[in-house]
Amino acid sequence: MDVFSSLMDGFATALTPMNLLYAVIGVILGSAVGVLPGLGPAMTIALLLPVTYVLEPTSAFIMFAGIYYGGMYGGSTTSILLNTPGESSSVVTAIEGNRMAKAGRAAQALATAAIGSFVAGTIGTALLAVFAPIVVEFAVSLGSPSYFAIMVLALLAVTAVLGSSRLRGFASLGLGLAIGLVGMDSVTGQRRLTFGQPLLADGLDIVVVAVAIFAVGEALWVAAHMRRTPLYVIPVGRPWMGKQDWKRSWKPWLRGTAFGFPFGALPAGGAEIPTFLSYVTEKRLSKHPEEFGKGAIEGVAGPEAANNAAAAGTMTPLLALGLPTNATAAVMLAAFVQFGIQPGPLLFANEGPLVWALIASLFIGNFLLLLINLPLAPMWAKILQLPRPYLYAGILFFATLGAYSVNLQAFDLLLLLVLGALGFMMRRFGLPVLPLILGVILGPRIEGQLRKSLQLSAGDPAGLLSEPIAVVIYIILAIILMWPLLFKLYRRNRPAPLLSANATRGNEPTDVARGTVSHGSHRADGKSKGDAGDDGDGGDGNG
Hints:
Blueprint (H helix, E strand, L loop, with lengths): L1 H13 L2 H19 L5 H8 L8 H26 L8 H12 L3 H35 L3 H17 L5 H16 L1 E2 L6 E2 L13 H19 L18 H23 L6 H14 L12 H24 L5 H12 L8 H4 L1 H32 L4 H20 L2 H19 L5 H23 L11 H26 L7 H5 L5 H15 L3 H14 L1
Antiparallel strand pairs: 1-2
């Protein structure tokens, strides 16, 4: 009952005319940015961080929430119409969504994506409202050793699953931790990594870092690979769904929600894994498996619901523990710090009205998304035709303006340029961006919890294992880090499967052997009827 009354108070705050206006602005901005390939909600929030200095924190976070949900939905539009996912979590949506669009069913694909996002987002936000206070009650009972272990787990687990290799992920994390060390030591007062520059004594402003890495780095990367050929956008009518489309979509929406929320709440979850699991599940459960790969509506409904449910799940560790699990949550955590709000278990106690208004605004933003995106889908398609040079020139302009407005110092512009070049080089060499941002934000907090733990144990490292939760977390962490090695050893020591004598000799082949030989000849020729059809599908998808 306490949760319900707090949520009602949150609705009373979020439904004031001014806050409702910021929710509408956030949803429209998020949808527009999510539609454009290469952009995303993280970059949009990073660009708007300096602008929100003049706003009340509640209004700013309501707008950020609208941008977050709008960006998650907008990525599906690009996936369906261009076969170009705006976000990594929209990759699976492109598999069936673009095939539906090429078959003249773009309107139905966009409609099931919009309604699925609404259903999953609403259920996910309700679960957030129920479970976040429970997580907070548990977190308040933890001490510094457990907090240190949880932060290390979140940092290393997210880093281990990102990027093309673990080495690149940990290299990015190392860069972020190094940037987070810049400034004055809070205990000894010694300057670290300032290189004699007094303006670095207070450390690097997280707003400047976020804008440089996300916006400037991405703009430089796109400019270096600019394509002059105009994009071909599939025409879109007014989104609608027939009776059969509804019948085939509602179960995938619910199953996608069940996949998305738990993975979004995990430290190393994210939206990529549940969207893939949802797609595989729908393919197995579908009564029309032959349509998969050719434009099955279940392949759009399920993954898109999982995507938005994961977005709601991501807010649980962010609000309850102060732990971001994706890039957008990391930038929102930076926004909390910008407003002088300490994220973590005490957030609900110290900033209860703000938190519940934020959760209520997620319900409102979800409804606004459905209300706005269904009629405006044709307009979002036209935004895709915006010339890229104009778009990224505008991004660089606002990034420069935003970075300068933080401290009104020209030195921040130099930092913006240097860190923007770092963001470009990270993309060039395949280093994921999120571990760097997490390192910058969580690095000082991890250092603080480590020092507090060692002070309580008089410098004895065993003090880090003084709580049962910390011990369990370190065991989980060891499993995560050692799993690839253990799996490799298992595969190496696994006995090879025994082949039948007939299949080995190839003399007087049985039916099984004939099937094996026939299959092998088809693979060698590459001209079998079934294989040719598959190749054709693959070529079409790439095109």
